[in-house]
């Protein structure tokens, strides 16, 4: 079977037309344009190549898919991640897992704790992240991202920046075995 991108019009011409030099030249002159058109058709399917989207394509798809939190200034990899997950997040919008996935896509790791998990006020939650980039400068961006996917009845109470470091731990101990002697001076 001949693939469309490798096909030539000569392949489908009947034998009597293949012998006509004018028809043959016309068929060969169109082959380049047909190959170019075949390549462009392959680019129409965005879902097959989400990891290869250009900036412009990602911006256009984000608008088309109504990506809740999307900024044109984001890095290309984050844009692709937001577009890739748009449908999934729309289906699960308002759930803690949707908030966690959006936070992970934009800011690295994040975990949502509901009010009943930490003894807070009803309908509140907090986000725990270990990404040091979630600073005061990016606080508004972080807040807008969470607000775009959380359920409307829930309120973000606080963001906890958790940082863990590997530190060497040295433990020492002494074991003494012997008699106890008390000396008193009488006097």
TrEMBL record:
InterPro entries from the UniProt entry: Tail_protein_I
Pfam families: Tail_P2_I
Record NCBIfam families: tail_P2_I
Name the UniProt record assigns to this protein: Phage tail protein I
Organism: Paenibacillus chitinolyticus
């Amino acid at each position: 079977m001949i693939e469309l991108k490798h096909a030539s019009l000569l392949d489908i011409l009947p034998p009597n037309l293949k012998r006509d030099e004018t028809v043959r030249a016309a068929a060969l002159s169109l082959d380049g344009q047909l190959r170019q058109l075949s390549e462009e058709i392959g680019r129409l399917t965005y879902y097959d190549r989400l990891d290869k989207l250009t900036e412009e394509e990602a911006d256009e798809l984000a608008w088309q898919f109504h990506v809740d939190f999307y900024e044109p200034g984001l890095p290309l990899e984050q844009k692709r991640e937001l577009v890739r997950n748009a449908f999934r997040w729309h289906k699960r919008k308002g759930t803690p897992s949707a908030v966690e996935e959006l936070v992970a896509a934009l800011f690295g790791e994040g975990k949502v704790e509901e009010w009943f998990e930490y003894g807070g006020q009803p309908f509140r939650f907090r986000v725990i992240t270990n990404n040091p980039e979630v600073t005061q400068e990016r606080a508004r961006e972080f807040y807008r991202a969470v607000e775009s996917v959380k359920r409307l009845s829930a309120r973000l109470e606080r963001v906890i920046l958790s940082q863990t470091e590997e530190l060497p731990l040295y433990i020492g101990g002494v074991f003494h075995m012997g008699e106890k002697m008390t000396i008193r001076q009488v006097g």
